[in-house]
Design brief:
Low-confidence stretches: 168-174
Shape: globular
Largest sheet: 6 strands, parallel
CATH architecture of the largest domain: 3-Layer(aba) Sandwich
Helix content: 40-55%
Distance between the termini: 11 Å
CATH superfamily of the largest domain: P-loop containing nucleotide triphosphate hydrolases
Radius of gyration: 19 Å
Strand order of the largest sheet: 3-2-4-1-5-6
Number of domains: 2
CATH class of the largest domain: Alpha Beta
Length: 297
C-alpha cells in the first residue's frame, strides 16, 4: 500500500491566536503557509476577516489570500482543488504543506477524500456559508415560513432544509483521510476566548471596518459567499438606517462567539485534532511537529 503524503494543519476557533503561532511554526521549520480561511481569499476584505498583514507575515510566504474579487463565489470544491495544487508544488520541492485556518469544513474536505460532482456545488456551498452566519432564531423563522418542523436547536438540519429549498442540493458524504495529517489545535478557556473576540471586534471598528464594508458595498456587487461573511452582513441594516452602530458591534460579537463555538464543535467531532492550550504548550507543539516531520512512513 502506497504511503500517504504528510500535511501539517493548525486549527482553532476565531481569535485564539493561530496567526502568531503559525508564523513561529513556519519560521522554525521553514514552511510556507497556505490559508484555510474561506473569506481571506477576497481582496479588500481585510479588517473584518482578520487577514494577516505583510508586517505580520515577517517574510513567510502565504498562499490563498487575496486571490478573488468579492464579486466571485468561492466554494469548498474550489478550495480543495486550488489547495491540492499548491500542496503538490510543496511536495515537488520536498516541503510539507502547512495549512492554517480557518474554515473547519474546508479543512475537513481537504484532508479527507471528499468527492464533488454536483454541478450546483458552488452555489450550494455559498448558501451554506450564508445561512451559517444567521442566528438560530433567524434560521428558525425562515424554516417555519416553509412549514417545516425542525427544532430551533438543530442548526445543521435547519440549514440543510433551507439549502435544499433553495437548490435541492444533496449533502456530501465523509470518506477516509487522504493524507497523513498532523492537526494541531489551539484552544483557550471559553471566557478568555469570548473576551478576546469581543475586544477584537472593537479593534476592527477602530481600525476602520465600517469604512471597509461601505467601500465594498459601493464598489462591488458582492457574491453570496462574500456577503455571508461575519463582520460584513451585519452592516446591511445599519447602512439602510434600520440599525445603530452599537447594535452592529453587538451583533458581530455575538455572531463571532457563536461561530467560534460551532468551529470547536465541528473540529472535535469531525477531525483528529491534537489540542494544546494557547500560550502554555509552545515547546510541546514544536517538539510534536519535529517528531512528525522526522518520522518515516
Amino acid at each position: 500500500m502506497e504511503s500517504k503524503q504528510k500535511v501539517i494543519c493548525l486549527v482553532g476557533p476565531t481569535a485564539v491566536g493561530k496567526t502568531d503561532m503559525s508564523i513561529k511554526i513556519a519560521q522554525r521549520f521553514n514552511l510556507n503557509v497556505i490559508s484555510g480561511d474561506s473569506m481571506q481569499v477576497y481582496k479588500g476584505m481585510d479588517i473584518g476577516t482578520g487577514k494577516i498583514s505583510r508586517e505580520e507575515m515577517d517574510g513567510v510566504r502565504h498562499e490563498m489570500i487575496d486571490i478573488l474579487s468579492p464579486e466571485e463565489e468561492f466554494s469548498v470544491k474550489e478550495f480543495q482543488t486550488r489547495v491540492r495544487e499548491l500542496m503538490e508544488r510543496e511536495y515537488k520541492n520536498d516541503n510539507i504543506p502547512f495549512i492554517v485556518g480557518g474554515t473547519a469544513f474546508y479543512i475537513h474536505a481537504l484532508i479527507n477524500d471528499f468527492q464533488f460532482d454536483d454541478e450546483d456545488h458552488k452555489e450550494k456551498e455559498a448558501r451554506v456559508q450564508y445561512y451559517e452566519t444567521f442566528s438560530s432564531e433567524a434560521l428558525y423563522e425562515k424554516v417555519k415560513a416553509l412549514n417545516e418542523d425542525v427544532h430551533i436547536n438543530n442548526r445543521k438540519r435547519m440549514i440543510r432544509v433551507l439549502v435544499k429549498h433553495d437548490l435541492g442540493a444533496k449533502p456530501s458524504h465523509d470518506t477516509e483521510e487522504k493524507y497523513d495529517a498532523l492537526i494541531i489545535g489551539l484552544y483557550d478557556d471559553r471566557d478568555v476566548l469570548y473576551e478576546r473576540i469581543n475586544e477584537r471586534v472593537l479593534t476592527m471598528i477602530s481600525e476602520g471596518l465600517e469604512e471597509e464594508v461601505s467601500n465594498l458595498f459601493e464598489t462591488y456587487d458582492l457574491s453570496k459567499t462574500a456577503l455571508g461573511a461575519i463582520g460584513y452582513h451585519e452592516f446591511i441594516d445599519y447602512f439602510n438606517g434600520k440599525k445603530s452602530l452599537d447594535k452592529v458591534i453587538e451583533d458581530i460579537q455575538q455572531d463571532s462567539r457563536r461561530y467560534s463555538k460551532r468551529q470547536l464543535t465541528y473540529l472535535r467531532n469531525k477531525l483528529s485534532v491534537e489540542w494544546y492550550k494557547v500560550g502554555t504548550d509552545e515547546a510541546e507543539i514544536f517538539e510534536r511537529i519535529e517528531t512528525f516531520i522526522k518520522k518515516s512512513h
